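re: that chain from earlier
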Amino acid sequence: MTVADRARPLGGLLARDPVVVTAGEGVFADALAAQGVPVRPVDWRPPPSETEAALTAVLSDPGHVDANARAVERLVTARPQLVDVRPARDVLDLDAGTFLHAGPPLDWERASGPMRGALIGAMLLEGLAETPLGAEHALERGAATLESCHAHATVGPMAGVVSPSMWMLVVEDAEYGGTAYCPLNEGLGKVLRFGSYGPDVIDRLDWMGEVLGPVLQAAVRTRGPLDLTALIAEALRMGDELHGRNRAATSLLLRELAPALLAAEDVPRDRAAAALRFTAGNDQFFLNVGMAAAKACADAARNVPGSSLVVAMAANGTDFGVQVSGTGDRWFTVPASVPEGRYLGGHGPDDANPDLGDAAIVETAGMGGFALAAAPAVVRSVGGDVPGALAATHRMYEITLAEHPLLQIPLLSFRGTPVGVDVARVVRTGIPPVIDTGIAGRAAGTGQVGAGLVEPPRAVFTAALTALAEIEQGRG
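^ sequence. v structure.
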């Protein structure tokens, strides 16, 4: 409102054309629009009556606002730095028969096709089976111990399977002292994370363990700690949203590491060249780096009593789950949804597996689907259009606790990305988070069949809110 408007009756409201704000069913809005009346629909609905008690208990807690403020402050002020690249057996102390996986805890019997495919591939990679069928039979007999990546401060894209010989990105939080891990990105196409386990997949993973991991380790150690928040902020300004699109971030990472790699001692020239070619040819290479950075930030916000801030969103191909700051390490789960998006090579929705992966950790930290307005080009790979991308980011401001002070969106006049998903706001508004994701084929070994967006059911946030309310009532 201008100064002149303030001096006029009713703030000058009657001097401008009215705009009708509508909520709920679109019949009324459509009728007005048909008559030429300016309409502004609002995506709002009253919370379900069964959530009133939980909402009241959480929102009436005198310490709730301060708890959320502390949690989201830690989330946005964490300082993730890439400090090393090391084998999983060393940094995670994994035994030969222990595999990590994406999402909430899962056993073989409930594992989806792509998760089973990735576990079969891990068995072959580790030499625990000679054939896919032998690996499958061994897994059926309980030959491997399966644990959630998140239980080990780790995140993995899609199936997220981590086995002892895989090399891990090591990200330390210089502000609060935490450490997070993520495996190296394999590239696109038929890869382990999408459930493929053919000879080419295993050969690539062997090469990554023999060549890529040690070369990157030499580069990172020669360069020293790399500030990932600054790199991510610059990538957002260059058109990435850090989930479906990482082209700028990958280029920026290469710019930082290539000189250090050339200066590193004892790295054969042919291996350095091969590592640079592989990384430069994989526009999604930075995704895993960004995931580890987001995990470090989200973990800094854990275990704040009374906080309804989401610190993890993840899926294992069977279940979708969330963890909340004020409820510790407890998972709240619902059946995973099938993403909507664009399919590859003649595939369609019938070929798609339900949502899969830990990569929604980047949405948890204010990137990915929450920053779609920063990356209009990403709609070409996930479906939709540019206005839809802008609208998605605007909706996310309604369910988050803050705007990121460093991660900014040029197209929104450098407004900070929406960050800090609040289960209470999700339940109260009925607006679910929007998450970028790849789409894996249902059958083990199929690989990627598309990419798109997925919105988790509100029920999982209602369950988390109810548990937090019970904790708060117990404390009271």
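Residues 77-293 form a domain with the Enterococcus faecalis V583 fold fold (CATH 3.90.1710.10).
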